[in-house]
From TrEMBL:
Family designation: Belongs to the metallo-dependent hydrolases superfamily.
Pfam families named in the record: Amidohydro_2 (PF04909)
Species, as recorded: Sphaerobolus stellatus (strain SS14)
Claim: Signal is one of the keywords in the record: yes
GO molecular function: carboxy-lyase activity; hydrolase activity
Alphabetical GO biological process terms: secondary metabolic process
Protein name: Amidohydrolase-related domain-containing protein
Domain of life where this protein originates: Eukaryota
Residues covered by the Amidohydrolase-related domain: 96-355
A cellular component annotation (GO) from this entry: cytosol
Stretch forming the signal peptide: 1-19
Keywords assigned: Decarboxylase, Lyase, Signal
């Protein structure tokens, strides 16, 4: 490629480099499992299950929008800041590595450009093709250093051309986790729709379970527990991994998971500790799409407030639903002091996302 062409390709991106110094004077929420996508990616987007009262057409428009209906609802309901990321499954459903890597760069460039004029209200998690861990690490570095992105959001496993799927718990991915630690940014692990092979084997007798009600959490919790048990956090103790939907069911079942894992392999597993302990050092959860007050109460007892942050899951969930829960229902339930409520709504997120840096 000639130098002129390279400059032409790079130039439109350069003006969008931005910096944000968060002053934390607000009291509103920070939400960061919030989906957005490009029209070109609609066939790589779960967009057939809008929330009640929203048509598929409105839902698609909500996914593409940033500055209109999204921002006006944030203003109306008290969301101070949203971190946007590519709606699931996005790049993780593109089997061809070259196509996936190019599309990831296109998505990241477009998102950086779209939010560049309002970085006090919007931030971004980068999207990465995960076929080649070194390429993923380089794209993470580019988006963090050039665009001020706040981390990465990966939609569970990566599809490949030969029908296998890739999980990020193997030693090949150490180069990626090493970069995550070096850049000191969190990684959000988000669910995705199942590949057809998995649907045929696991869900054909109850196809309605293939999705957010069950399938999402089942496959993603396997991936999360794979990352724990394969020792990623032992090799990279500073990795911050965030999972949504109140922990993809894991914190609710820690006692049994730990007890049974101990028996699994007589000589021990690749991990050095137990799953409970990684929730004190590496794992965080958000409330996205799971505003269940009794469950939150249990998680406050088991993993503790410091590991739990608010998020919504817009536009799959209405902004108002999340805001009503946290602003009204949750204080009424009397399980958090006002100071603790602020931690849940924003203060832990400011630390974990590095908004105060
Ligand atoms: C803090 O940031 C907000 C934007 O989120 C801005 O309106 C406000 O003026 C800032 N306050 C200070 C003291 O810089
Ligand atoms: C999505 O898939 C449909 C059906 O195959 C096709 O008609 C449409 O052009 C695709 N849209 C994009 C943006 O690729
Ligand atoms: C940022 O740009 C978008 C698209 O042009 C526009 O709709 C929006 O109002 C702008 N926001 C600010 C704060 O300038
Ligand atoms: C399928 O492709 C992946 C890389 O994309 C490779 O690691 C794996 O060995 C391949 N598996 C088979 C059965 O060809
Ligand atoms: C998990 O490990 C911690 C120490 O890190 C220990 O206190 C706890 O008893 C262990 N739990 C189980 C169920 O093994």
């Amino acid at each position: 490629m000639g130098l002129t062409l390279q400059i032409l390709l790079v130039l439109p991106v350069l003006p969008f480099i931005f910096a944000r110094k968060w002053n934390n004077t607000g009291k509103g929420t920070i939400a960061f499992e919030e989906a957005w996508t490009l029209p070109d990616l609609i066939n790589f987007t779960d967009h057939k299950s809008p929330p009640p009262g929203t048509t598929v057409e409105q839902f698609e428009a909500n996914l593409f929008d940033i500055h209109n209906q999204r921002l006006s609802q944030m203003d109306a309901t008290g969301v101070d800041f949203m971190v946007l990321s590519c709606a699931t499954p996005c790049i993780q459903a593109i089997p061809d590595p070259t196509t996936a890597e190019e599309m990831a760069r296109t998505v990241n460039n477009a998102l950086a450009a779209s939010i560049s004029n309002n970085t006090f209200r919007f931030g971004a998690f980068g999207t990465m093709a995960m076929h080649n861990p070194a390429v993923a690490a380089a794209e993470l570095e580019r988006t963090v250093k050039e665009f001020g992105f706040l981390g990465a959001l990966l939609n569970d496993y990566q599809q490949t051309p030969n029908g296998t799927v890739l999980f990020y718990d193997q030693p090949e991915y150490d180069v990626f986790w090493e970069k995550v630690v070096e850049l000191d940014v969190p990684v959000y692990l988000h669910p995705r729709s199942a590949v057809p092979e998995l649907v045929a084997l696991q869900f054909q007798q109850a196809i309605w379970l293939n999705g957010p009600s069950q399938g999402y959490a089942v496959t993603l919790s396997n991936h999360i527990l794979g990352i724990c048990t394969n020792g990623v956090f032992d090799r990279f103790p500073k990795v911050k991994l965030i999972v949504g939907h109140l922990g993809e069911r894991i914190p609710s079942d820690l006692a049994r998971i730990d007890e049974q894992l101990l028996k699994e392999i007589p000589n021990g597993l690749p991990m050095k500790r137990n799953i409970t302990s990684y929730w004190q050092t590496n794992l965080f959860e958000t409330t996205s799409g799971n505003f269940a007050t009794p469950l939150l109460k249990f998680h406050l007892e088991t993993i503790g407030l410091n590991r739990i942050m608010y998020s919504i899951d817009y536009p799959y969930i209405n902004i108002q639903e999340g805001q009503t829960w946290i602003d009204e229902l949750l204080p009424q339930a009397g399980i958090l002091s006002q100071a603790d409520l602020l931690k849940l709504k924003r203060e832990t997120a400011i630390e974990v996302l590095g908004l105060n840096k």
